[in-house]
Design a protein that fits this description.
Blueprint: H1 7-17, E1 23-27, H2 33-41, E2 46-49, H3 52-61, E3 67-70, H4 79-82, E4 88-92, H5 95-107, E5 112-118, H6 131-140, E6 149-156, H7 164-185, E7 194-196, H8 203-208, E8 213-216, H9 218-221
The structure holds pyridoxal-5'-phosphate.
Length: 226
């Protein structure tokens, strides 16, 4: 227990509602190491962070079988710091970043999983590819030559609004787009299968819209203190 937040109980409650085939990324950004340890002790192994330095401190302090996902905007000059250990970079939004990840993964003789981030939400401040730009990136074919990355699917955030129909529309747009590019570029590639959408406020809708990977912070750890 921590400020009245029972992390183990929250995890259990959420996991009980997730259908088979939907995995949980515990978004632990801004939460202290002890709280991550509590989640780990309750069985959680996938954690999401969005700041390179904060992640570095946590990665050295916590058990090595944690699967770390970088879920925030990643600057190309920060890739080298996380390349030795990051499992997945979930918000790739430029070809330049993809190249950089491939380069540094190769230096460490690793394959790093990535998700391509889509921008579908109405907010202009959010990162990510438009659907057209994502098609254009895949059309270049350059990614096929990148032997040290594995494109595992798509990630997106819905608009931060109360209108459930709008949120649902945005998730469905992403799900339809997933089908389109799966068929066109990844038909015989089993690794391409993730649809990462859904956060604390909208993951129940996201699951109905075929999410395979929800990213939940507040509902597990409580409010973040920035
Ligand atoms: C912070 C964050 C989350 C988790 O948000 P909550 O509302 O706390 O569940 C999910 N995805 C991304 C990309 C985030 O930055």
């Amino acid at each position: 227990m921590n400020n009245g937040v029972d992390i183990a109980e929250n995890l259990k409650t959420i996991k009980d509602t997730l259908p088979d085939g939907v995995r949980l990324v515990a978004v632990s950004k801004y939460h202290p190491i002890e709280e991550l340890q509590t989640a780990y002790d309750a069985g959680q192994r996938i954690f999401g962070e969005s700041h390179e330095q904060e992640l570095a401190k946590k990665q050295v302090a916590l058990p090595k079988d944690i699967e770390w996902h970088f879920i925030g905007h990643l600057q190309t000059n920060k890739v080298k710091y996380i390349a030795p250990y990051i499992h997945s970079i979930d918000a790739v939004d430029t070809l330049k970043l993809l190249r950089e990840i491939n380069k540094h993964a190769a230096k460490h003789n690793r394959i790093i999983n990535v998700l391509l981030e889509l921008h579908i939400a109405e907010e202009t401040t959010k990162y990510g590819f438009s659907l057209g730009d994502c098609r254009a990136l895949l059309d270049t074919g350059e990614w096929r030559e990148m032997k040290n990355i594995r494109i595992c699917g798509l990630m997106m955030m819905a608009s931060n609004v109360d209108d459930e129909q709008q949120i649902r529309r945005e998730f469905n747009t992403a799900a339809d787009f997933f089908d389109e590019i799966k068929e066109k570029y990844f038909a015989d590639n089993d690794a391409f299968r993730e649809r990462s959408w859904g956060m604390s406020d909208d993951y129940r809708i996201a699951i109905q819209c075929r999410s395979t990977m929800v990213r939940i912070g507040t509902s597990i750890f409580g409010e973040r203190e920035y």
